[in-house]
Amino acid sequence: MKLYSPWAEVDGSNPIVLSPRLDTFDGKTIGLYAHFKGHSPVMLQILSELLSERYPNTKFKMIQLKRDTMEAFNIPEFDAELKEWLADVDGVITAYGDAGSCCMFHAYNTVYIEKLGKPAVMLCKHDLLKGGQKAASSRLCPYLRFVTSDIPDLTWVPELNEGVREGVIRPGMAKILDQVVDALTRPLTEEEKTPFVKDNSYAQPFEVESLAGVNELYYRRGWTTGLPIVPPTEEAVKEMLRGTDLPADYVVAKLPPMMGQATVEKIAVNAVMAGCLPTHMPVLIAAVRAIVQPIIHLEGWTCSVASWCPIIAVSGKVAQDIGLNNRAGAISQYDKASACIARAYAYIIMNISGVRPGEEDLCEVGHEARMGICVADSISEDNPWKPLHVDFGLAEEDSAVTMFWSQERYEGHGFNAASCFKSMSRAAYGGWDRGCCYVMSPGFARHLNREGYTSRKKVLNYVQQYARHSAANVNFRWMYDNNHIPEGVMIPTSKEESAPLFWTTDHMMIVVAGSNYDSTCVNFAGGGEHGGPACEKIELPKNWEELVKEYAIEAEYHAY
User: Fold this and answer.
1) Which residues pair with 401 in a beta bridge?
2) How many CB atoms lie within 10 A of CB 319?
3) Is the pLDDT of residue 340 over 80?
4) E-assigned strands of 99-197?
5) Mean pLDDT of all residues in the chain?
6) Of 383, 376, 278, 378, which is closest to residue 333 (Cα–Cα)?
7) pLDDT digits (tens, 9 = 90+) for 496-540
8) Of the candidates 197, 182, 178, 273, which has an alpha carbon nearest to the alpha carbon of residue 228?
9) CA distances from 548 to 284, 322, 330, 532 (A)
10) 22-75 tens-digit pLDDT
11) pLDDT above 80 for 190
12) Rounded Cα distance, 505 and 462, in Å
């Protein structure tokens, strides 16, 4: 019988051929391209000093992209500056791939330099080489040249003092000097001159004699977690496609880092494997659209060394139609819709984004909610506020998916506004605009509403302004050296002052869900500057009402 692969196809056309190498360093102008972290230009400056001792006639010029998890061509003003800077450069050294997503984005930008016609070599930490190579391949430059180093990520060093510069960076750079020169001068091999076009055979349907052993097969191919799957047979995928009017081959988005084509069919295959119903398809399609919005730099979290948990908040009538539980145990995945949608989304990240543990997902210890949380925003009379999606400019009668990437979890309670805000102020501080997704029970929301906080926006504005801590907790070096000061935000000048726990409300949201037993709020903090929230309207097929009725019994499956 025919089974479908959940793995996405990628566009392998027009691979990038490396630019011709230099014949010598002597008399050339070498460009030094630094990423956003403060130690990157320091490393390159020390490297240029070492190279100057060997090649006194060589000139060096530096440029720095001061934005995290961004590709140069997506920043028009920097792109223009980069192209002008490259005009009289003969070759480029880029540094430094020292953390998961940082390494990937640095590889993307190094590939872009090659695409603009300049030979380049990227420096990265030795244990991140594979991630850098995969990132380069995803941008169709499979043979980008790397030089690896044992210099650690210096982000959290309190100060780039003389001891760090001379005791760590200079000997580290001296150790790789010959390799850097070689990478920019060694002639291209025949393989580098004719890079491969990716083979999509892994993404094609295939035949099996029976369904026995299918779970083991999908597990061994890296298409699923250790949990059993529903085999994506031709019949099952066809039924899942009833949940949308879009053609099966329609590309909803290309998902980084692999730039896998999230066709409607591939979304359906992953949904079948997770046990979804056709009525879940509109939610998953909207979720895929949401995660490619500019406010979410997807691989900034999925490929990070930081832990992460995706939150899928469904608001509006669709949440009720598909049986999403927004009462007792709302985030516990006791019901079919919340469990299966979250799991399907996790498969989409694995199989369409191409994120694997230890390869792209470089989180040190992982996250207990890595498979995601799907929760419904209450539209009952218990919720004092308008639906979540109204805050993002959609009409009240619409339904929507709002995506958020969290890292931490804190739980608190409240019986009046003061105690509610105290609970909402629990989050660890980081050197970025951390953000938070609050999932609060109706009782918690009503306490706030009764005391004049009559909208989610008013609540979040209060938290942002008054949830404060000592400025002594602020990692000033991280914020200044690594260019992580949010736009329009004033940073305390003294550690004796106070500082906001959340620099802005740009990365904050509230979901109202849970029972009326008490007044509880869970703070999912940490999504931060590339964690959302991103809201996308749910588009329903013409046969929606028919589907809802057909699957009404299954939509009501709960554990109680």
Assistant:
1) 314, 536
2) 28
3) yes
4) 120-125, 146-149
5) 93
6) 376
7) 899 999 999 999 999 999 998 989 999 999 877 788 899 999 999
8) 273
9) 16, 7, 21, 30
10) 999 999 999 999 999 999 999 999 999 999 999 999 999 999 999 888 899 999
11) yes
12) 10
Number of H helices, E strands in the chain: 20, 19
Rounded mean pLDDT of 334-349? 95
C-alpha count within 13 angstroms, C-beta hemisphere, residue 476: 11
Residue 75 burial (CB count, 10 A): 15
Give the CA angle between residues 450, 452, 453 to the nearest 5°.
95
Q: Pick the closest to residue 1 from 173, 186, 198, 209 (CA basis).
A: 209
Say what the pLDDT of residue 4 is.
Answer: 97
Q: Give dist(CA 204, CA 151) in Å, integer.
A: 42
The whole-angstrom separation of Cα 392 and Cα 400 is 10
In the beta sheet, which residues pair with residue 504?
none
Phi then psi dihedrals of residue 461, to 5 deg = -60, -40
Burial class (CB in 10 A: 0-12, 13-18, 19+), 383: buried
3-state SS, 399-447, equals: CEEEEEEECCCEEEECCCHHHHHHHHCCCCCCCCCCCEEEEECHHHHHH
Candidates 313, 306, 339; CA nearest to 532 is 313
Could you identify the residue written with the tokens 């953000």? 435
Q: How confident is the model at residue 434 (pLDDT cuts 50, 70, 90)?
A: confident
Q: What are phi and psi for residue 465, nearest 5 degrees?
A: -80, -35
What is the sign of the dihedral through the CA atoms of 362, 367, 373 and 378?
Answer: negative
b/e per residue 225-245 (b: at least 16 CB within 10 A):
beeebebbbeebbeebbbbbe
Q: Are β-strands 206-207 and 251-255 bridged in parallel, bridged antiparallel, or unpaired?
A: unpaired
- Measure CA of the first residue to CA of the last residue in the chain; give whole Å: 36
pLDDT of residue 333: 85
**Which H helix or E strand runs over 311?**
strand 309-315
Which helix (H) or strand (E) is 312 found in, with range? strand 309-315
DSSP H stretches of helix in 416-535: 417-424, 442-450, 456-466, 476-481
Cut 0.70: pTM above it: yes
